[in-house]
Design brief:
- A six-stranded mixed beta sheet has the order 2-5-4-3-1-6.
- It is globular, with a radius of gyration of 14 Å.
- It has about 120 residues and is α+β, with helices and mostly antiparallel strands.
- Helix content is about 20%, strand content about 40%.
- The chain starts with a strand and ends with a strand.
- It contains four helices and six strands, in the order βαββαβααββ.
- It has one domain: Roll (Archaeosine Trna-guanine Transglycosylase, Chain: A, domain 4).
Length: about 120
């Protein structure tokens, strides 16, 4: 199965259904299920921003199965729409470029097995 590794807190925000777009510089034509791997990396500033949510932020674990519904090229209008959906999660970055992968949470996964992540899309 395909897997993508995300830093925390972004991996948990996806698994909780709070982050519905994953931003990448590259277009991805695949549509379907992919696993979310919470890597070892941490975005410390973002962790502070979301600490009030009192969520669990595991590391080196598969934490969710999501479905990629679409891959949308970003422009000013799309950025504005995404930010309006959830300003807390997406911030005020109106000049974001690249692509937004539209995600839907299929299921959260609670697995204690430690797994090393990789860059890009990888298989498990």
């Amino acid at each position: 199965m395909r897997v993508i590794t995300l830093k925390q807190p972004w991996a948990t925000l996806v698994a909780e259904g709070l982050k519905k777009y994953e931003f990448r510089s590259w277009k991805y034509s695949y549509r379907g299920e992919i696993l979310i791997h919470a890597g070892k990396g941490v975005d410390k500033d973002a962790m502070k921003k979301f600490e009030h949510l009192n969520l669990n932020y595991p590391h080196s674990r598969i934490i969710a199965k999501v479905k990629i519904l679409d891959c949308i090229e970003l422009n000013d209008e799309i950025n504005r729409q995404i930010i309006e959906e959830n300003e807390l999660v997406y911030g005020h970055k109106y000049d974001r470029t690249g692509y937004a992968w539209k995600l839907e949470v299929v299921e959260k996964i609670d697995d204690d097995k430690a797994i090393s992540g990789k860059q890009g899309i990888w298989n498990i």
